């Protein structure tokens, strides 16, 4: 048991968790003011990644239709298709859709919100209800 604990959650020394590098690349692109080349993404990432590694991750994200690319010189500059909030919301929705008990998942999610997040969610829901009510009354007029 001691050997397992010594290895930690990351497994092999220096290895990232699955999907962590893709998340890091997306975070670098979201933080940028515009499209970035592979070299610029590499410079924005922590550590000393090989250029080809960054290029591979960018290509994978492009193939998954998470990035668009524009010709820049002999290579490409990349930018995310969605902003970070839209991407995260889509992931949350996908996880919710994959569960067998949607109500239980939502109840657990809400029960674990901080007081501040609960307040924000309440405001968002109140605003959504007001807009939905306006839409319905506009259709009757």
Describe this structure as you would to a colleague.
This is BlaI/MecI/CopY family transcriptional regulator. Keywords: DNA-binding, Transcription, Transcription regulation. Belongs to the BlaI transcriptional regulatory family. By secondary structure, the protein is mainly alpha-helical. It has helices at 2-7, 20-31, 38-44, 51-63, 84-98, 102-111, 115-140, and strands at residues 36-37, 67-72, 75-80. Strands 1-3-2 form a three-stranded antiparallel sheet. A hairpin with a 2-residue loop joins β2 (67-72) and β3 (75-80). α3 crosses α4. The longest helix is centred in the last third of the chain and has 26 residues, at 115-140. It is elongated, with a radius of gyration of 21 Å. Mean pLDDT is 86; it is low at 1-12.
